Structures are given as C-alpha cells and as structure tokens.
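SEQUENCE, STRUCTURE TOKENS:
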Amino acid sequence: MFAKNILLVFKTKDMANKRLDMRNILQLLRLYTQGVSKLQISRQLDLSRNTVKKYIESFHQNSFTYQELSGLSNEDLEELFDGQIKPAPEKNIVLESLFPTIEKELKQVGVTRHLLWEEYREHYPDGYSYSQFCYHYQNWRGKLKPSMHMHHKAGDKVFVDYNGKKLSVIDQSTGELYEVEVFVSVLGASGLTFVEATRTHNKEDFIGSLVKMLDYY
C-alpha cells in the first residue's frame, strides 16, 4: 500500500499565490526543453524566477517527458500540476498488485505504458486516469531495490547488440520491400550511439558493422 494516500504531485510553495494556466505550464516546459534559460523564461512569461525553478524541478521529478505532457488532456494536467488526489485505498491496492506484471510486460518490444493502461481500464473502467496510472507506477518503481549504477571510463567499453524488432526498407531500384536487421552500439561512458541496418546478422554483416562502428567512433 502506498505510504501516502494523498498525493500532491506538482505543488510548490509559491503556487498558492500564482496558479498557472495549463497552457502557460506547457509553454514554460517547452521553452526549457528547447534550451531557453530560466531567466529568459521568467522574463518572457512574466513569472518569478522561483516559480519557473519550482516547475522545472517538479518536471524533472515526474516520469513524463514534455512530449507526453503535451499529449495529455487539461484534466490530466490539472491533476498532475495543481490537483489533490482524494484517498482511494482500494484503487491503490488493485493497481499496485498489477505492477509486477506491468513491469515485465514493458520489457517486451512494442509494449508501452499507454497500451497497458488501456488494458487496465478495460478491466477496471473506474480506474485511474493515464496520468495517475503512470504516477503511481513511478512511485511503486521508486520503492523497488535500486539496481547498481555502473560507472564507465571514457573509451573503456562499447556495448553492441541487434535490435529485437526488424525494420523494412524499399529497394529504390526494384521497389521491392524487404526486412533488415538493426545493429546498435553504445559507448559506455558517453552514450554515443552508432546504428546500421543490414540484410542479415550473419558473421560477415556483423564484422562489417563492427568495422564501420569503430571508424565512426
């Protein structure tokens, strides 16, 4: 059961005196994700720097990206930023019991949180909205034993593998559609990524991708 039944998701001290419109919140976050400084955002939107700072800090603490937030309804946004969720222990117990299965399902190719939420609402029509589904899931994950964080030295390791899901391309000369394998490599320290599509993942294609990868890095 969750330690707190009342969740104040995006509440900050100075918000009591200045409640932002949902469009202003999205505009603030859009500018921030585009690299605009907090001072510039404050001036452009006529907000105090403390207000801007608090919203940005809350944004980093939440599990949503800006793209996900921009796709939510005004109702969901209000719940996340200004809403106070009423206690619902029965809902919490039911949803929390599903999280271990949801955690496993999300590791499969093509499975998303939104897809699992739709399945959840089919079985529980009165269940949580998508935003609260994600929020409770993030809280649950935060209680799990954290995995060990790996520190890598620059240039020490590169991780390679093939994507589990094939892609399709069209041969421009013949118009033929055929599937390709996707080779992916990532440098451990910087996260710099190299990706190549090949007809197969046999030895020749694999070695060829490794050569191009090293040349790229």
